[in-house]
Design brief:
Layout (H helix, E strand, L loop, with lengths): L1 E6 L4 H12 L4 E8 L3 H11 L3 E4 L5 H10 L9 E4 H9 L6 E4 L7 H9 L3 E4 L3 H4 L2 H11 L3 E3 L2 H10 L19 E8 L17 H4 L9 H9 L1 H14 L6 E5 L5 E7 L4 E5 L5 H9 L13 H4 L13 H12 L3 H17 L7 H13 L9 H21 L6 H4 L1
Parallel strand pairs: 1-2, 1-5, 2-3, 3-4, 5-6, 6-7, 8-9
Antiparallel strand pairs: 8-10, 10-11
Helix pairs in contact: 2-3, 4-5, 10-15, 11-14, 14-15, 14-16, 15-16, 15-17, 16-17
C-alpha cells in the first residue's frame, strides 16, 4: 500500500486523487490533506479517509474546522493532527509516513510546500505548474540533492513521460535534471484551444467571464480554464516541459487538437512519433503517477477511436493567443522572467475574473510587467529572489489596473 499526501485536497486535482484512493482502497492510503477554505468538503474527506494530519492555509480557520468535526461526530481519537499557515502546509507536505505527495495547490502558493516535500525526500506527483515555471532553477538542484522523483500529473507532460517509457533511451532518473533526454528530438504539446478555439480573433472584444470559463472538453477550476482560453496554460507547459525533459524552446511546439484525445506527442531521433491517447480525464495521468512504474487495471471507459471518428490538428493563431508568445519569450529569457510572467498572469486573470479588466487586457498587463522587469532580471535566482519578483509582479499588475490604462494588442487593434 502506498501512503499519499494530497496538497489541495478540495480542488480539482485533489478530489480526483481522492476518488482514485476510494476506488483502490487496497492500494492507496491517504495520510495527509491540505485545503483552503472549503471546510464542508474537507470535513467529509476527513471522515472518509481518516488522515493523520490536516493543514489549512489560513490558521484562523482551525477553530471552525475543529467545531465542524465535532458537530459531524468525529471523535477525538479519530481527529487528525490539525496545523495551519505556511508552516502547517510544509508539515503536511513532508509528513513522515507519506510515500508520495500530490501537489494540487494552484499557483505559487504551492511552491513552498512542494519544496518542503522535495527536501524531505518525497516523490511527487506534480500538478502544480508553478513549481518548475517560477522556480525551475531553484527546484532542479533540490531534486538532485534529495533524490526525490518528480512525476508529471499534468495530462500533457504525463503523456510525454509515458511515451518515453517505451524508448531505449528512457532514464527515469534523468527526469527534471535539466539534462536533454537522449534520442528525444521534439515535443508536441496538444491543446484543446480552450473556450475561444472557434472564435475569430477580432470577436474576442466581446468575450465575457462566462465565455472564458466555459471549457469545451475539460472540467477545471476557473483560473486554469481562463488560461486555457488564452492558451497561457500551454505556454506555461512549454516552460515546464523544458525543465522536465531538457529540450530547448525551439524543439517544443504547441498544436491545437480540438478532440483532446492525443494528450501529447514526442518525435525521436529516427523521426518516429509516439503519442499517448485517451478520453479527456485527469484521473488517468494522476493514476499513472500513483502506480508508476506499474500499470493498474481499471474499470474505466475504454477509448474507441471509431466513436471519436476523426482527429484533427492545426497551428495556434498568434493573433488569438498572444499569451503563448509571451510565455515562449519569458522561457527564453530565463532567470526570474518566467516567475514574473507567471505571477503577472495569475494577477491579471484574477482581475479579469473580478471583471476589473477585459479578457484582451490580460496579455497587455503581462507584457508590461515583463518589460519593466528586463532591467532587473536575475539570471541565477535563489528562492528569495523568486518569491520577491513574484510579489513585485502582482503589485505591478494591480498598479497598472488601478491606473485604468488599457490598449489593445496591435494585431487585434489593426
Amino acid at each position: 500500500m502506498k501512503a499519499i499526501s494530497v496538497l489541495g485536497s478540495t480542488g480539482s486535482i485533489g478530489t480526483q486523487t481522492l476518488d482514485i484512493a476510494r476506488d483502490f482502497p487496497d492500494q492507496y492510503k491517504v495520510v495527509a490533506l491540505t485545503a483552503g477554505r472549503n471546510l464542508a468538503l474537507l470535513v467529509e474527506q476527513i471522515q472518509e479517509y481518516r488522515p493523520e494530519v490536516v493543514a489549512l492555509a489560513d490558521t484562523a480557520l482551525l477553530p471552525e474546522l475543529q467545531k465542524r468535526l465535532k458537530a459531524a461526530g468525529v471523535d477525538e481519537a479519530a481527529t487528525p493532527q490539525l496545523v495551519g499557515g505556511p508552516d502547517g502546509l510544509n508539515v503536511a507536505a513532508s509528513w513522515e509516513s507519506a510515500d508520495l505527495v500530490v501537489t494540487g495547490i494552484v499557483g505559487c502558493a504551492g511552491l513552498l510546500p512542494t519544496l518542503a516535500a522535495i527536501r524531505a525526500g518525497k516523490d511527487l506527483a506534480l500538478a502544480n505548474k508553478e513549481t518548475l515555471i517560477a522556480a525551475g532553477p531553484v527546484v532542479l538542484p533540490e531534486l538532485k540533492k534529495s533524490g526525490s522523483r518528480l512525476l508529471p500529473a499534468d495530462s500533457e507532460h504525463s503523456a510525454i513521460f509515458q511515451c518515453l517509457q517505451g524508448t531505449p533511451w528512457a532514464d527515469n532518473a534523468r527526469l527534471s535534471t535539466g539534462v536533454p533526454t537522449p534520442g528525444l528530438r521534439r515535443i508536441q504539446l496538444t491543446a484543446s484551444g480552450g473556450a475561444f478555439r472557434d472564435w475569430d480573433a477580432r470577436d474576442l472584444e466581446k468575450a465575457t467571464v462566462a465565455d472564458a470559463t466555459s471549457h469545451p472538453n475539460w472540467s477545471m477550476g476557473r483560473k486554469i480554464t481562463v488560461d486555457s482560453a488564452s492558451l497561457m496554460n500551454k505556454g506555461l507547459e512549454v516552460i515546464e516541459a523544458h525543465y522536465l525533459f531538457g529540450l530547448d524552446y525551439d524543439h517544443i511546439e504547441i498544436v491545437i487538437h480540438p478532440q483532446s484525445i492525443i494528450h501529447s506527442m514526442i518525435e525521436l531521433a529516427d523521426s518516429s512519433v509516439l503519442a499517448q491517447l485517451g478520453w479527456p480525464d485527469m484521473k488517468l495521468p494522476i493514476l499513472y503517477c500513483l502506480s508508476w512504474p506499474e500499470r493498474q487495471e481499471t474499470p474505466w471507459r475504454r477509448l474507441d477511436l471509431t466513436e471519436v471518428g476523426q482527429l484533427s490538428f492545426r497551428k495556434p493563431d498568434p493573433a488569438k493567443y498572444p499569451c503563448m508568445e509571451l510565455a515562449y519569450a519569458a522561457g527564453r529569457a530565463g532567470g526570474t522572467m518566467p516567475a514574473v510572467m507567471n505571477a503577472a498572469n495569475e494577477e491579471a486573470v484574477a482581475q479579469f475574473l473580478e471583471e476589473k479588466i477585459h479578457f484582451l487586457d490580460i496579455p497587455v498587463v503581462i507584457e508590461a510587467a515583463c518589460e519593466r522587469h528586463k532591467t532587473d532580471l536575475i539570471d541565477h535566482p535563489q528562492l528569495d529572489d523568486v518569491l520577491a519578483v513574484d510579489q513585485w509582479a502582482r503589485q505591478a499588475v494591480r498598479e497598472q489596473v488601478s491606473r485604468g490604462t488599457r490598449r489593445m494588442p496591435a494585431v487585434l487593434a489593426a
